[in-house]
Amino acid sequence: MNIVFLGAPGTGKGTVAARMAADQGFTHIAPGNLFRDEVKKESSLGKKIKEMIETGVLVPDEITNQLIKKHIKKNNIFDGYPRTLNQAETLDKLIKLDKVILFDMSEEQIVKRLGGRRTCPNCQAIYHMVTMPPKNVGKCDRCMATLIQRKDDVPDVVKHRFNEFHQKTAPLIDFYKQKKLLFSVNAGHDVDTVFNAVKKIVKK
């Protein structure tokens, strides 16, 4: 089974995708994580991607599609991909999609949520200082690395990313509606509620 999680940054796609992967045996494919892996390598491509991420600019389709192709397995959850119609058309040529789940959330909620988000720079685990804090303040539960606030989680950058989503990604809502693949969940609820709602959709 192949599923796309569609939604603006900060709607909880990554957290739910990771839980679904662990619970249901999916491969979690997230361009953001793939980009950060490239940045860690400090390659010329990684340096270009780092600059784009920190300013909230979407990485070009050509680079994104290339990285995605390398990681596709049998059962996949695509978290934050596709983000443009070009990427959607590329994905259609690679695999058959079963469902697309839209994580619906307001800009105000997203800015508030991302303001409290902290990320592990080592294993990419995500926390929230209010709704999902680590057991040890400032430390990752998995590997005890010091948590950071990503530069793309700063309010001004978040708003820019939200606008980018509506300009380039929102058209995918109509694209997948026409294919009768689109389902929607209210991403403003707590993680467990959203996870259970997604799980029900996947099992339909």
Description:
This protein has 204 residues and is an alpha/beta fold. The protein has a single domain, classed as P-loop containing nucleotide triphosphate hydrolases (Rossmann fold, 3-Layer(aba) Sandwich). The strands form 2 sheets. Strands 2-3-1-4-7 form a 5-stranded parallel beta sheet. Strands 5-6 form a two-stranded antiparallel ribbon. Strand 5 and strand 6 form a beta hairpin. The chain starts with a strand and ends with a helix. The model has no long low-confidence stretch (mean pLDDT 88).
Write the layout of secondary structure elements.
Layout: E1 2-6, H1 13-24, E2 27-29, H2 31-41, H3 44-55, H4 61-69, E3 76-79, H5 85-94, E4 99-104, H6 107-115, E5 117-119, E6 126-128, H7 155-169, H8 171-178, E7 182-186, H9 191-203
Parallel strand pairs: 1-3, 1-4, 2-3, 4-7
Antiparallel strand pairs: 5-6
Helix pairs in contact: 1-9, 2-3, 4-5, 6-7
Low-pLDDT parts are none
Give the total of domains.
1
The CATH architecture designation is 3-Layer(aba) Sandwich
SSE order, as H and E?
EHEHHHEHEHEEHHEH
Which strand order does the major sheet show? 2-3-1-4-7
Q: Distance between termini? A: 12 Å
Q: Mean pLDDT score, rounded?
A: 88
Enumerate how many helices there are, as a single number.
Answer: 9
Spatial extent as radius of gyration: 16 Å
Helical content band: 40-55%
Task: Specify the CATH class.
Answer: Alpha Beta
Tell me briefly what this model is.
The chain has 204 residues and is of the alpha/beta class. The chain has one domain: P-loop containing nucleotide triphosphate hydrolases (Rossmann fold), CATH 3.40.50.
